[in-house]
Specification:
The protein is mostly beta strands and 503 residues long. It has a domain of 142 residues. Helix content is 2%, strand content 50%. The strands form 7 sheets. Strands 3, 4, 5, 6, 7 and 8 form a 6-stranded antiparallel sheet that branches. Strand 22 and strand 23 form a beta hairpin. The protein is globular and about 65 Å long.
């Protein structure tokens, strides 16, 4: 078995970059600089950007967690194509700083702090935001008082103008210790009929006695933006791949093509079996039932299984594409690859039937990995070798973009870990890594950590990304460890003179 793993590792060694394109910060967006945003608030508080979407106008909407009145809530901000912050036209009482920001506190009778933002999507003139929250309620006996009752996953709906339209609780737990319900992603689609029926599908993970199970639900979106449940929560378990002692962790949801009124629905993440984690792609129908024609039972996995390491490869994002006629879907799952001495990132490609696309990546394995520092077993690892982690994946034309972070140990004993944003581009057909590099945030006279948590198609070969920048632990003035939103756009550096696309 060890010999087989070693052969696979050698065949999948990071290949040289294709050097097809060199990417840099787009000079058209904010002058080629990071846009750092603290919602006009104090640098002594944290503002964590998590998800992003691009509107038809080219504007970027960034969603994250921001502070308000002593707790964390949802924050939304938008930037135009040039990287100029735009005001919301109708945020009502949720507008802040002249409506430059939308700050939504979901609390009503009881507090409901926002722990994380998991997804944001648009359909028509509505924005749908998936969040993880904390639940509070009141004791039923005197003395009456508010207490923490567990965790929840919620969906908030806004108009594109910023107006709050409503919310729906998707799932919850009663655990006052660790969270047991997790949101992964949402997708919205119409049925291509008149009058149109609009559906929203949800993917996530539920822990049942410590056992991770995929969770799925479908809703009909009303004219008033209310969500009416169609399936309630279901727990797809194709071929018992997620049943004990195995388990699954869902990280995202994607829509492929369609042959009728419903697009094909994929969940992506990780599957645990036989003491290791592998990338997972799972196809379900509109009712959450696994589709057996995909992978034989509804699911497919890929393990890089690099010799000499833990074999724990974790899927973190999924994207899919396909047409209306027939089924020619391409499904890509990106994530972390466990590599001896320095972890890397990777992308696996599946065909419409769940088989590995062996034309993608080197060696006929159907995957590509890059960004790591593989050292053969028995060889010493070098101090300071970086680990890279994938957080999000986007598809645009012929390219895939992956973003995440690089963690690099300090060269000084006991020194602070250095964390920098990471960006890579892969050709979607060949799997050739065109470009991959760190993008440290180093403003004049300053040094901060950075990481990217989402990426979207920026049009014309560009990709926009959102994440955070964080002050170092040694920063003075009470800002140590605090974060701000960070938004940037990458573009191919094809020509130093005409790099901005203008002649």
């Amino acid at each position: 078995m060890v010999r087989i793993l070693l052969i696979a590792a050698l065949a999948l060694l990071p290949r040289p970059l294709g050097a097809q394109n060199d990417y840099g910060l787009d000079p058209v967006f904010n002058g080629g600089n990071w846009y750092v945003d603290a919602f006009a608030g104090s640098a002594q508080l944290s503002y964590r950007a998590r998800k992003m979407l691009r509107l038809d106008t080219g504007e970027l909407v960034v969603a994250g967690v921001v502070p308000k009145a002593g707790r964390d809530v949802l924050g939304l901000v938008r930037y135009d194509e040039a990287g100029v912050r735009q005001a919301w036209s109708n945020p009502g009482s949720n507008g802040a700083n002249g409506n430059q920001y939308l700050v939504f506190d979901p609390s009503s009778v009881f507090p409901r702090p926002v722990e994380d933002v998991k997804d944001i999507v648009r359909f028509g003139d509505r924005l749908f935001v998936l969040v993880e929250t904390l639940r509070y309620t009141m004791t039923t006996q005197p003395p009456f008082q508010t207490f923490f009752a567990g965790h929840a996953v919620d969906i908030y709906v806004f108009g594109a103008d910023g107006a709050y339209l409503g919310s729906t609780a998707v799932m919850s737990d009663s655990s006052t210790a660790a969270r047991e319900v997790f949101g992964a992603g949402i997708a919205v689609y119409g049925n291509l009929q008149f009058p149109e029926t609009v559906s929203l599908v949800f993917g996530g993970t539920s822990l049942e006695n410590g056992q991770g199970l995929p969770a799925f639900a479908r809703y009909t979106v009303g004219d008033d933006a209310g969500l009416a449940p169609v399936t309630n929560l279901v727990y797809p378990n194709p071929g018992n791949r997620c049943g004990s002692p195995r388990r699954c962790d869902i990280a995202g949801i994607a829509l492929g093509g369609r042959s009728g009124s419903v697009p094909r629905i994929y969940l992506g993440g990780s599957a645990f079996a036989f003491d290791n984690w592998d990338f997972l792609a799972l196809r379900v129908d509109a009712n959450g039932v696994p589709v057996a024609s995909f992978g034989g039972d509804g699911a497919a996995t890929f393990g890089f299984n690099i010799a000499g390491d833990t074999l724990n490869d974790g899927g973190r994002a999924i994207v899919a594409s396909g047409g209306i006629l027939g089924n020619n879907d391409e499904i890509y799952v990106a994530g972390d690859v466990a590599v001896r001495c320095g972890d890397g990132v990777g992308i696996a490609k599946f065909r419409a039937d769940g088989s590995k696309d062996t034309t993608f990546g080197p060696g006929g394995f159907g995957a590509v990995r890059f960004g790591d520092s593989y050292v053969a077993p028995g060889t010493a690892c070098f101090n300071g070798t970086p680990d890279r982690y994938a957080h999000a994946l986007a598809l645009s034309g012929t390219k895939l973009a992956l973003v995440g972070q690089t963690n690099r140990a300090s060269i000084f004993i006991g020194g602070e870990l250095n964390v920098d944003a990471y960006f890579g581009v892969v050709d979607r057909a060949s799997g050739l890594a065109d470009f991959a590099d760190d993008f440290p945030f180093r403003p004049a006279g300053d040094s901060r950590h950075s990481g990217l948590w989402d990426v979207v198609d920026g049009s014309n070969g560009r990709f926009a990304a959102a994440g955070d920048v964080r002050y170092r632990a040694t920063a003075p003035g009470g800002v140590a460890g605090k974060m701000q939103f960070a938004t940037l756009r990458f573009a191919p550096r094809l020509d130093a003179i005409f790099a901005d696309g203008l002649e």
